[in-house]
């Protein structure tokens, strides 16, 4: 590794330690030419395999861009989008594979996006799953409605249970 101070072509590792649960390795290096010390960080590259077979490094920025587009005009703040992208990265890295199909990255986005904003979710799903008819939208909306009804039912049951205990 080239010294960032004097551009000397070589450096010596004086210390290595894992960070981020072993996802990263930080190395403290020393330049034999000027004696200055600097730190480098090594991270295993997670490759995303596109449908065309081309691979590219996983990019959280790219996820944020795609989700932000789906959230246009929706009451979703940047922090929530950043958090969602972080969740997606954790999900795909947790699979422990060095390469992941872009399809799986899309799948990892759908779940948390549905929890964040249903309209944004529909937009994203329509592109990702290539909806090509109104029936596709209808079916997806019906699934969303069923999930909402299930949540309401659970909330009501929970509220009734609480009321029963307090009375
Ligand atoms: Zn140097």
Give a verbal description of the structure.
With 167 residues, this protein is of the alpha+beta class. Helices cover 52% and strands 19% of the residues. A three-stranded antiparallel β-sheet has the order 1-2-3, with no helix packed on it. A three-stranded mixed β-sheet has the order 5-4-6. Helix 1 crosses helix 2 and helix 3 (102-116) runs antiparallel to helix 4. The mean pLDDT is 89. Zinc ion (ZN) is lined by residues 3, 5-6, 8, 31, 33-34, 36.
Give keywords.
167 residues, binds zinc ion, elongated, 3-stranded mixed β-sheet, alpha+beta, 3-stranded antiparallel β-sheet, 5 helices, 52% helix, 6 strands, 2 domains
How is the topology of this model organized?
Blueprint lengths: L11 E8 L4 E7 L6 E7 L3 E3 L5 E3 L2 H11 L7 H17 L4 E3 H15 L1 H11 L5 H33 L1
Parallel strand pairs: 4-6
Antiparallel strand pairs: 1-2, 2-3, 4-5
The protein binds zinc ion.
Topology, number of strands:
6
**Percentage of residues in strands:** 15-25%
What low-confidence regions span 5 or more consecutive residues with pLDDT below 50? none
Protein structure class: alpha+beta
Number of domains: 2
Number of helical elements: 5
Mean pLDDT: 89
Name the strands of the widest sheet in spatial order: 1-2-3
Distance between the termini: 70 Å
- Name the hetero compounds present: zinc ion
Shape: elongated
Major pleated sheet: 3 strands, antiparallel
Helix content: 40-55%
Name the helix and strand elements from N-terminus to C-terminus, one letter apiece. EEEEEHHEHHH
Our Rg estimate from Cα atoms comes to 23 Å
